[in-house]
Every structure is written in structure tokens, then in C-alpha cells.
Amino acid sequence: MVPVSGMAGLGVAALMSIAWPVIAYLICRERMALRARNIIVGAVCFIVFALVLEGLLNRFVLVINPTTAAWFNAHKIGIVVYGALAAGIFEETARLFGMSLLARKEEGTGVAYGIGHGGAESILIGALGLVSSIALAVLLNQGKLQSVLAHAPPGTVEKVQTQLVHLTFVTALAGGVERASALVLQIALSLLVWRAVKNKQPLFYIAAIFAHALFDTPAALIQTGFLHLGTWTIEGGYAALAALLLIVLLPRLPARVQA
Questions:
Q1: Interacting residues of 212 by C-beta distance below 8 A, sequence separation 6+
Q2: Rounded to whole angstroms, how far apart are CA atoms 42 and 210?
Q3: Residue 50 and residue 92: Cα distance in Å, rounded?
Q4: How many Cβ atoms are within 10 Å of 209's Cβ, its own excluded?
Q5: Residues 45, 97: contact at Cβ < 8 Å?
Q6: CA dist 64 → 33, 81, 152, 185 (Å)
Q7: pLDDT of residue 102
Q8: Residue stretches of the chain with pLDDT short of 70
Q9: What is the pLDDT of residue 259?
Q10: Which pLDDT value is given to residue 254?
Q11: What per-residue confidence (pLDDT) applies to 86?
Q12: Residue 171 and residue 30: Cα distance in Å, rounded?
């Protein structure tokens, strides 16, 4: 059985995931103009590049193509490198494309794009993922999880069940905290690519790709079993990095955007 407190924690974390982009917008709009158009461009580019295009490539490479699928199954470290670089390339190219060709170029473009990009991720991956976990928890408590996931890959039901039955209110909140850290990182990366666009300095775009890949690597190492850390250990590390970025960026935000 999944404890009620664990499901409540998932619900609160889902609400947190929705709230973070709104909070970021309310804080930043006092410092600069945040055009709705640029926020929408960020959200749409994230959906097209990260969810659709990257998703199609991942499915082809990791599932459909027998040669590459077999290689990655035999070389888990390859999945880590591929996954981190693919995320970096697709998402930072989305920023480059969106801010170069679609966004209105002005003082707050980088921040507005970052709120849209990171906000879409926070809601579509964070909040909806947590709501899906709540639905799975309900199915588990009703004894229907096995039948609903009957066609899932081997071991999926056992893995999901193990994760859910050990949920507590506090551990469930990690998903909401993760979304806050990720949003800060997404805005920071957007500012980096915005500098590449505005000042015509492509090295900042390349730097953003590798920074993004570096941010994603610890989580990928944990998912593939190479790194064993508690949930709050890894989330605490990301939160500390996000806090450092906030300390550095917030006092300089208008000047950084105008540079």
C-alpha cells in the first residue's frame, strides 16, 4: 500500500512544479520587460525540440534500431553520455533557434525565454509526471497496477511498486524541489545562449550545450546504476547549485541582459 502521506506529498510537489514558473515571472517582471511572446516561444521550442524531436531520436536509437539498441543495452555508460549530450544539443539548439528567429529581441528576452522553456518542462514533465505517479499509487492500492501495466517491459511493475510503497510526504516533495532547481538552471542557460545570439558569440552556445550535459550527468548516472545517492543528496546538490546561480545572477540581472 502507498501511504496517504506519500500521495499527499506528490500532490503538493505537483502544485509546486506549477507554481515555480509563476513565481519566477512575478519576481523578474519587476526588473525588466517580460514579453508574453518570448515566454510562449520558449515553451513551444521546448516542446518541439525536447519532447518531439529528441523523443523521436531517442526512440529510434534506444528502441527501434536493433543495432544501436543492442549496443546501448550492453554499454550503459553510453546511455549516460548519449542522453546528456542529446539533451544539451536539442535544448540549447531550441534556445538558439527560438531567440535568433522567433523571439522579440529586447532587455528581458533571455529571462522570458528561460521562464517559458523551463516552465513548460516544470509543468509537462514535473507536474504531469507527479500526477501520473499519484494515479499509479491509486491503482496499486486498488490492486489494479499489475493489469494496467501488463504490457510494460519486464520488471517495470516491481520497480514502480518499490518506489511507491516507500514514499513519505518528505521524500515525495523532492520532485517539487527538483523543478525549482531545474527552472533556475534553465533560465541561466537561456541567458548564456541569449548572449551568444545578441553578441554573435557562438562559443556561448557551445558552452551551454556542455553545461547542460554536465548538469544532466549525475541524474543519468543514478538512473543507470553507476551512482548510488539518496534522493535528497542529489536534489540538495542541484538546489545548492541553483542557489549559487541565484546569488550570482539576481543582483546583476538587468545589467547581464542589457550587456
A1: 84, 87, 88, 91, 92, 189
A2: 20
A3: 10
A4: 23
A5: yes
A6: 45, 19, 16, 32
A7: 95
A8: 252-259
A9: 40
A10: 55
A11: 97
A12: 34
